[in-house]
Amino acid sequence: MADADEDKRGRRSSGSRTLSRGLALLTALGEHGDGATVSGLAEATGLDRAVLYRLLDTLTAEGFVTRDPETRKYRLGLSMLELGVRAAQGLEVRRLAGPPLRALSEDTNETACLAVRDRDDLVVVEVIEPGDRFVQVNYRIGFRHPLGVAAHGKALLAFLPDGARDPSLQAVRQRGVAYTRDELEPGASGVAAPVFDHTGKAVAAVGIVAPTARLPEPEAIALRVLRSAREISERLGWRPRRAT
What we know:
Oligomer: single chain
Strand order of the largest sheet: 5-4-3-8-7-6
Radius of gyration: 22 Å
Structural class: alpha+beta
Shape: elongated
Distance between the termini: 67 Å
Number of strands: 8
């Protein structure tokens, strides 16, 4: 009996190790938008090439990874995209933000974006783009950058415990909206405000991103962005505090 229990624990340990390696491999591929070779993945993950080949074969067969026969580089496959879309669709804030986000894009004629926190990063979960703008900022669903960077990141971090004592975010906390210009990408600017849930916790950031030339005075649309943030917050059950 003891030998059987030890064998089960060994299989679980082996399975957990394989899963951990597979996740590390997928993470490494996600950081190489142009694809990665086996040697590059070995360097990025620290995994043996024989292990990498086995993992890549399995993930490729399941559609989570694809291989370019010409460059011999591996990329994330469509199955990963499908899982990502399903995960984003499961976010309540994304579902409830739809109408206010569309209205924000229509009223400003700019790209309206919703983003949430993922550990130390900010991840874009919804984007509404105007149909008649030829030049737009590349801020797409699934785009990830450090929390506290760009308007959306600053707007969210300023109202989280992590950023509550950050003096550089004091102005954002005071006015309730963040402005950035040419920070994340040269020629791109943003205006964003935090979204709160029914407990009063900041759970997302909503706003617009646009070419800097089209936002000479970002303060002019601050009230419109704040209104969208309030509408989404109210849909999540948030209510303003009553004066006592």
